Amino acid sequence: MVSVPAHAVVPNPSPTANAHPLSDSGEFAASGEERKFLCLLDNGILLIADGHEMNPFVLSYRARLGRLKFSYVTRLVSIDAIRRSYQGQRRDGSAERIDHTQMQVVAKNLIARACDERASDIHIRVNRFSTEILFRIHNELVRVSEQTREYGERLLATLYAAMSSVSDATYKPNERQDAAIGDRDKLPDRLFGVRIATAPTSIGNLMVLRLLYNDAGEATDLMELGFTSTQASVFDLLAQQPHGMNIISGPTGSGKSTTLQRLLTMQLRETAGTIHVITVEDPVEYPIEGAVQTPVVNATTEEARSLAFAAAIANAMRLDPDTIMIGEVRDRASAQSALRAAMTGHQVWTTVHANGSLAIVDRLVDLGLPLAMITDESLVTGLISQRLVKLLCPHCSQPLTEAIHQLDVGLVARIKRAVGSHFEHVRIAGPGCPNCKNGTIGRTVVAEVVHTDQTLCELLRAGRKPDAHRYWLTELGGQTVAQHALAKVAAGLVDPRMAERVVGPLRQSGDFERQLTLGNSYGT
Fold first, then answer.
1. CA distances from 81 to 60, 65, 123 (A)
2. CATH (domain of 147)
């Protein structure tokens, strides 16, 4: 055999179909844990799972080969290729056994790592032969690890059965299940809780963990989230109304719960705790100091959940509340209960999935509420829609004018038309620096906030939605999500490419100078 340096890497080595593993037994036998990440073949190739080159088991085995003066070349392959290389060989099953206690440590470390990365979610995908672990960071999925299928199966079982405090009695891989982790000794200090959802897939299982951070509990300033001063003033006005329903819309992960948390915390502080705030949530997501937060227990079916949620809202109304926060209106029963609470003199805050502020009316009609009632300005007082876009790092972002040759010609022309004389201020994400992660430092809200009035509701009730939209923009001084995003692009705070992924193609509309002034008057 030709001797080569032990650290050499073969980009395109010869096929290994006829090679046999030396690391399965004998002098070069690897432990059960080592075999998950490497395989030494009798042709002198050491297969290593891609991404695990610095794995302690891999480093330990390579050090041992060095002591044995065994010459080899390395090849990076998938974990599935490692598994296949041992197929048909003798295995010691006991060596691969990972006890539950050890997996709890692994699970805690995984959640802590996600916190360090400021991830909003952890995705664990158990595939046919391997497990992928991904973090959602600033709304984008980032692959962080690949493990064996067995590892993933044990991790999912441990997270569900041994870590969660609200779940079914047992983990059922072939069913959809929900759970939550809330015990303080199982979570990093930065987390209030973890919400878990599982589902079987065509080739395995999926578990998604939503991380609920507790570091927003002290803040109440909506402008820090990215709302304009005008929008914050509308929120203040809505919060001062003694009754009426205020509804926040947006897709999953658009910051609706954070906005509600700040609003209610602000109300409680400004009134020195003299108002009674009750929340109905499934489950409780963020702590709100001074509020009575009530969870809706797990239900086995969607129908049972709907009934339990409606019953919880009805119960909350009997507990003498001033303000009721309903985590989400997602069916007819919860929508009717929320509207009933507003009709009986309570202030109601809730969320719904809709494409825009005025589209909330269509969504409520779709859920079975009468149009005449949801277009009554004394019942539905606020309609809010929000999204999140990445905020540029001020230290390494660069002027778009210096990178025009790197960008799509159509995008540049579109931005020029949209921002006009402010084109010189537009910036794009830089390469990253010690102050940021890949050129961004978090996310900022782009939103539209509507305080309903008689004319707006009359137009909506008559089915004249375009006229209602025009009236809101021109007579009520409204600003759309797209206009808000464009103002932030023109101010050099948001990369236009990132903005368009969230709000679509940027186009100038209306009085742009006024929109720019509105868009810049916030504290982020």
1. 21, 21, 22
2. 3.30.450.90
pLDDT-flagged residues of the chain (< 70): 1-17, 88-100, 166-169, 215-218, 297-301, 509-524
Would you say residue 485 lies in a domain?
no
**C-alpha torsion angle, residues 251, 216, 292, 330 (rounded to 10):** 0
Predicted pLDDT of residue 12: 42
Helices 100-116 and 149-157 sit at what angle, rounded to 10 degrees?
90
pTM, two decimal places: 0.76
Q: Residue 503: what pLDDT?
A: 94
- DSSP letters of 317-355? HTT--SEEEES---SHHHHHHHHHHHHTT-EEEEEE--S
Do 281 and 322 have their domain in common? yes
Judge contact between 226 and 524, C-beta under 8 A: yes
Same-domain status, 333 and 351: yes
Q: What pLDDT digit, counting tens, does each position of 156-209 carry?
A: 999 998 888 766 667 889 988 888 888 888 899 889 889 999 999 999 999 999
Q: Is-contact 160 177, C-beta < 8 A?
A: yes
Residue 451 falls within a domain, yes or no?
yes
Regarding whether 243 and 208 lie in a shared domain, the answer is no
CATH number reported for the structural domain that contains residue 466 in this entry: 3.40.50.300
252 and 365 part of one domain: yes
Task: Name the residue type at position 294.
Answer: T
- Is residue 28 helix, strand or coil? helix
Q: Same domain for 108 and 174?
A: yes
Would 135 be classed as within a structural domain? yes
- For residues 15 and 17, give the distance between their C-alpha atoms in angstroms, rounded to a whole number: 6
Cα gap 282→183, rounded to integer Å = 17
**How many folded domains does the chain comprise?**
3
Q: Which residues of 283-296 are buried (b: 16+ CB within 10 A; e: fewer)?
A: bbbbebeebebbbb
C-alpha span between 80 and 39 (Å, rounded): 12
Residue 42 domain boundaries: 32-86
Report d(CA 171, CA 193) in Å as an integer. 19
* Residue 466 sits in the same domain as residue 327: yes
Q: Are residues 359 and 238 in the same domain?
A: yes
Cβ neighbors of 440 (< 8 A, separation 6 or more) are 138, 390, 391, 392, 393, 429, 498
Backbone angles phi, psi at 352, to 5 degrees: -155, 155
Q: Where is 267: in which H helix or E strand?
A: helix 256-270
C-alpha dist (Å) from residue 180 to 157, 285, 315, 480: 13, 10, 23, 36
Q: Considering 213, 247, 262, which residue would you say is the last residue of a domain?
A: 213
How far apart CA 481 and CA 356 sit, in angstroms, is: 8
- Answer yes or no: are the C-beta atoms of 49 and 78 closer than 8 Å: yes
Residue 341 lies in a domain: yes
Domain check: are 157 and 202 in the same one? Answer: yes
Q: Which of 461, 479, 497 is the last residue of a domain?
A: 479
